[in-house]
Amino acid sequence: MGSNPPDVLPPIASVHSCRVAHDVRGRENGQMPTYRDEVVVLRTHKLGEADRIITMLGKSRGKIRAVAKGVRKTGSRIGSRLEPFMVADVQFYEGRNLDTVQQVETVTSLTGLIVADYPMYTTASAMVETADKLTDHGHTNGHFPLLVGGLKALASHAHDPSLILDSYILRALALAGWTPELDACVVTGDEGPHTAFVISAGGVVSDAVAPPGTPHLSPETVELLGALLVGNWTFADATTEVARAEARGIVAAYAQFHLERSIRSLGHIDRMG
Description:
Layout: E1 22-23, E2 34-47, E3 51-58, E4 62-68, E5 87-93, E6 99-108, H1 111-115, H2 118-136, H3 143-155, H4 161-175, E7 196-198, E8 203-205, H5 219-230, H6 233-237, H7 241-259
Parallel strand pairs: 4-6
Antiparallel strand pairs: 1-2, 2-3, 2-5, 3-4, 5-6, 7-8
Helix pairs in contact: 2-3, 2-4, 3-4, 4-5, 4-7, 5-7
């Protein structure tokens, strides 16, 4: 077997939080303070006749919501730089409730590649929705590089989109403290292999303590979940569609349990393609 291709999503262990890049110039003389951050755009909403509210995930500050004034006007120079999936370096005025976008420089333009392909677009939408929901709870450490890495892998067709999505969701949940246990029984601690998976318990359990009706996964599915969590793409790329479909169901249910709400964008994805 050939060597394992490089992981296209940042390993969880190497993803660290960054210090806030905050510039408070102007606070002393009564002007609004400004700051800069590298961001990925999660979603946008119309505001008034010409503005938008942009929800972003910042490399340093985590979740940012800011008004981009005039971006819906014809000829706006920054409107196209603040579309979902764009990675940009942005300067903001800091406000009490909403910040205001002052300057935007494109870092990585992924929007055009992603929106031109509907399956890729729906997959990316599920990724940014997951990031949006997780960072609502204050889980910001490491989510920026993980999301950007996932979107870049998706746009470059590095792997099957569904595998990239499930890998991203598992790693994002792990960053939030919800790493599924796939080796030892979460109840007894007995080493596996185990194939009974209990969502509410957080992973596999031995048959001796599995509640009645607990689903049993195939050994390939359990190994696939582990491969997606650590970035073993040689194994993941070689798995059967049966194992991938079973893993997709577990990932979706596991995410919904911990987020306490479903990822709505998953409903628009052809997960059997």
